[in-house]
Write a structure and sequence with these properties.
ribosome binding, 636 residues, single chain, 25 helices, mainly alpha, 62% helix, two-stranded antiparallel sheet, ZUO1-like_ZHD
Length: 636
Amino acid sequence: MAVHTEFPLITYSQEIVDGQPIFVSSNCLPIKALKFEPAGHSFHSAALKLLGVQEDNNDADDKKVVDDKEQTYLPSDSYSSKSKKKSGTGDKQQDHYALLGLGHLRYLATEDQIRKSYRETALRFHPDKQAALLLAEETEAAKQTKKDEIESHFKAIQEAYEVLIDPVKRRIYDSTDEFDDEIPTDCAPQDFFKVFGPAFMRNGRWSVNQPIPSLGDDNTPLKEVDNFYNFWYSFKSWREFPHADEFDLEQAESRDHKRWMERQNAKLTEKARKEDYARIRTLVDNAYKRDPRILRRKEEEKAEKQRKKEAKFLAKKVQEEEAARIAEEERQRKEEEERQAAKAALQQKKVKEKEKKLLRKERARLRTLSGPILSQHLLDISDDDVERLCMSLDIEQLRSLCENMEGRQMLLEQAKVLRYALSSKKEEVVDEKTNQQNANGSIKANGISSLSNIEKKEKPWSKEEIDLLRKGMQKYPKGTSRRWEVISEYIGTGRSVEEIMKATKTVLLQKPDSSKAFDTFLEKRKPGAQSIESPLTTREELGVPAPASTNNVEDSQNKSTDNQNSPANGVSSSSEQDVWSAVQERALVQALKVFPKETSQRWERVATAVPGKTVNQCKKKFALMKESFRNKKSAV
């Protein structure tokens, strides 16, 4: 429509504010302004449209989708042949989305949209609907060519539908679709979200888990940011990686050849998948390093760590200062205590010296008062008695005694006071000794009673009982039911199970022949020699005089010095005891053979076997015999 030049341009007010709805004035009807005001040619065109002198061209945008569906099929050169099985004829892959009129949606197209578009496209390009095109051709060859083209186009539409409606085939086809694999490496801090946001959205199409989280903006909470990066660090892709050098399995010559092709294709696919995962990981790493939110958190964590470090250092410093202060106070307290202790010790020393001085003074006073009494020998008071009082009485008692004596005028009365003090002190000493003796007697009585109880509790085992115990243990071995009760009944002496079990660990472990060794020795002795029936035979039974007790010897020494060298109570002197008879020597030699070195209490047993000799005498005689034997051997 032609524009009339007689219409003037629109005039408007200067009070236009961006984003605010205002009304403009012109020579036409008033209109409500939009959010974005037209300017330049757009402003003039809008004014002409309002006047009705220019048509609206918005219908062209509405017809865009229809144009995509109406376009004739042409093979696309923008998609390389990467599928495992190539579609159509030739080496070029057809654009399935363009065939079905979904070129503007592509991988975003839903299954319902694919089905609807396929029905419309198939109905439109069906060979029966294209019969009119055949009539337009003049020659038969041209008609046949046109017919083949129509059928080929319809088959391509069917193939596109079969590929896009199958999820597996569509995934393979979408993997070969155009895609920007470029990874942003660096950007300005203020452009981070503009650069990396589209990259993540672009690569999110390959994610198995949908929907993918958004990168967000600068105000996104850190929890969502962490979830975003956790998602991408554990990213799982469904993308297929058909390679140009892959083998076509349909061209395999045999089964083994096909398996070999599959292995080779799997290697190429795995290599491409690793490269794609490395690319995604690089994208996530680059974004994580440059994310301003992560950088702020790291700075905050670093500042918090530094703050904690400084706080810890300050706390440690305060603690050290407090410890130093406490140590200093403790040192000062100890020094003060030492000074006080030294002062107290010095004071106590002075007091003790003063007390000693006073004590010496009182003792000298008592000796002075006792001098006349001692010179006249009144009441049999001796110097030792006075000294005993001086050393046993304390200062108060001495002072009281001296004052009491000074209060008496007569010398005899003073002597009586002194004698009374001596008798009182002696009674105290006697009472103390009596108490000690009573205490010792009670302890001794308790010990005797406890020993008697032990003897009553532990009854010794006789030889017959030991033999019966051995036979019972052999007769009733381990595994016998109620073994110890049966053995107790077998012995028949009223022994309890505890006593029998204890005897098996003590009595039965002794060597059975050790108790008969001494009896065998006595039986083998000569008839003329004096025999000892048992090791417990006393010297009185053999007629051998026993040695005198120590108390008798001391009493005899106190009474008379003439009896020191004479035998006491029938005991021979040392010179007589050193004399050995032939019988005693033979008994010693035989006892040494019977009781070897490893025998317990060897010399006690040897001395018991030799009549009239002690342990020391046997040892001395044995040493002399050994020395004599060595001398004879050296002489030979």
